[in-house]
Write a structure and sequence with these properties.
The protein is about 70% helix and about 0% strand. The protein is mostly helical. The chain has two domains: about 45 residues, Homeodomain-like (Arc Repressor Mutant, subunit A, Orthogonal Bundle); about 140 residues, Tetracycline Repressor, domain 2 (Orthogonal Bundle). The radius of gyration is 22 Å and the shape is elongated. The termini are far apart.
């Protein structure tokens, strides 16, 4: 290889996919805050020029919306859809949802994205959609288990709020410990159903109750 050819090879930059950019933005947001979500800084982190950025995004506003929507799809929508269509009784689906949250670290960017939402209206709109999705699937599951009225709403909101904040509170706790505690937490949340008539409180085996109001 000639010296000139070597020089050209040295200047060749790695190709970065749209997903690479979105993942990088979430990592920077989580570790350094929204102030570092700047094109030039992300280009430096990824080792590319701004040409790579504009190959995937129309500009800053498009990029911000794309990061927020990517967070919504990957860390909420995909698991909600899977749990909603998964066979089994509501308790087993609730356990599967909880285990998925922990195993896949689905809430690891929650605190950072919610802080970002205070500065960016486009992000705030996506956060509202995410909350609606999360509350919706949990409301369905707890309704099928037998919760109603204010008790249903309180249990739903308690679950969603806890897992949105868990990682920022228990940052040193292992996944193994979190999984063990999660199973106990589910049993604790279901204690109000203990002793209730199965005919009055729960759907027949293999059936799902009518979706709760507002789901």
């Amino acid at each position: 290889m000639t010296p000139m050819a070597k020089g050209r090879s040295a200047r060749v930059q790695p190709r970065r996919s749209r997903e690479n950019w979105l993942d990088a933005a979430l990592e920077v947001l989580s570790r350094q805050g929204a102030a570092r979500i700047r094109v030039r800084d992300l280009c430096a982190d990824l080792g590319v020029t701004t040409g790579s950025f504009y190959a995937h995004f129309a500009g800053r506003d498009d990029f911000i919306r794309s990061v927020a929507k990517y967070w919504q799809r990957r860390y909420t929508t995909e698991i909600v859809e899977r749990i909603r269509h998964e066979p089994g009784d509501p308790r087993s689906r609730l356990v599967a949802l909880t285990e998925g949250i922990i195993q896949q670290d689905l809430t690891r960017y929650d605190v950072a994205v919610r802080a970002w939402a205070a500065q960016e209206s486009a992000v705030a709109a996506v956060v509202r959609q995410v909350d609606k999705e999360r509350l919706g699937i949990l409301r369905e599951l707890f309704f099928e288990l037998g919760f109603r009225g204010a008790e249903l709403e309180m249990t739903t909101r308690t679950f969603v709020t806890y897992y949105s904040l868990e990682q920022s509170i228990l940052v040193r706790q292992s996944k193994r410990d979190r999984m063990r505690e999660a199973r106990s937490r589910i049993e604790m949340l279901l204690l109000p159903l203990t002793g209730r008539s199965s005919d009055a409180a729960r759907p027949a085996a293999g059936q799902r109750s009518t979706a709760p109001p507002g789901s």
